[in-house]
């Protein structure tokens, strides 16, 4: 009986191991198919230096074999200057920790600093040139002031139809929430982030049928029309006069007139110099009068003081 039981268990064990081998072989054989179908995301790093990483990654929301194919508009021709203008129009708001957003409304800040835009411009332009219709461009920026922190500025961008879609997954200025002792952080914790556009550029309203399929980790995103944003940022804004007048009122200096021209500006400067010269002359005059008053006080103090009383005339008896 024991012998029969042992033989039975041995056969079951062999069958189990055989099923595992078959399963592994099946999975390995399916990997190329899954990759071709876009069910497994692959990424290629194209640039990595100075705490900045740029590359391309498979966009799982695309599907070339569907009845209505969904593809990205890549490769895309963008100059580094275009990249800087587009990145410079993005702002983000959010909070650090768990409850900051309950008590305040965080003000938007630029997503990228001027130095980061300079470093990102060429790598992103090159990545858009190399990306395919099934890929999107991604970026990761390390916090230079705290290089060992887990908080990073990271996200991805892709063109589809007439829109540029921007996804922000993290920002290093917004610290991760307190996990209550847990060492890991929920990747869906987006720190209450929200993306904004800097005026005069505006975010685009994407029709529902053209809206990308966003997954649970892509809740912070914004869409824009690059041509409109670039045109808006190149258009001069008539706000210089009002800002100059406000600055003049804040500093107590005469503000420039609304029709400020080089001639008017020169006249204003000359008038200001004349006023300063008159004020300097008045100050010197006051100093001279004060010095004269001091001398008079000193001369009066140096005179001898006499307590002698006038003598009375003696009257004869």
Describe the structure in your own words.
The protein is α+β, with helices and mostly antiparallel strands and 317 residues long. The protein has a domain at 43-178 and 187-234. The chain contains 7 helices and 9 strands, in the order H-E-E-H-E-H-E-H-E-E-E-E-E-H-H-H. It has helices at 2-37, 80-87, 100-103, 114-130, 226-234, 240-251, 262-302, and strands at residues 43-49, 52-58, 90-93, 109-110, 135-142, 152-160, 163-170, 194-197, 221-224. Helix 2 (80-87) packs across helix 4. The protein is elongated and about 115 Å long.
List keywords for this structure.
317 residues; 9 strands; 6-stranded antiparallel beta sheet; alpha+beta; elongated; 3-stranded antiparallel beta sheet
Per-chain topology:
Elements: H1 2-37, E1 43-49, E2 52-58, H2 80-87, E3 90-93, H3 100-103, E4 109-110, H4 114-130, E5 135-142, E6 152-160, E7 163-170, E8 194-197, E9 221-224, H5 226-234, H6 240-251, H7 262-302
Antiparallel strand pairs: 1-2, 2-5, 3-4, 3-8, 5-6, 6-7, 7-9
Task: Describe the structure concisely for a colleague.
The protein has 317 residues and is α+β, with helices and mostly antiparallel strands. 40% of the residues lie in helices and 17% in strands.
Number of strands: 9
> What is the H/E order?
HEEHEHEHEEEEEHHH
Q: Label the structural class.
A: alpha+beta
Shape: elongated
Poorly predicted ranges: 24-38, 239-262
For the sheet with most strands, the description reads: 6 strands, antiparallel
Portion in strands: 15-25%
Figure out the total of helices.
Answer: 7
What's the Cα radius of gyration? 38 Å
Whole-number mean pLDDT: 76
Helix fraction, binned, reads 40-55%
**Which strand order does the major sheet show?**
1-2-5-6-7-9
The N- and C-terminal alpha carbons lie at a distance of 171 Å
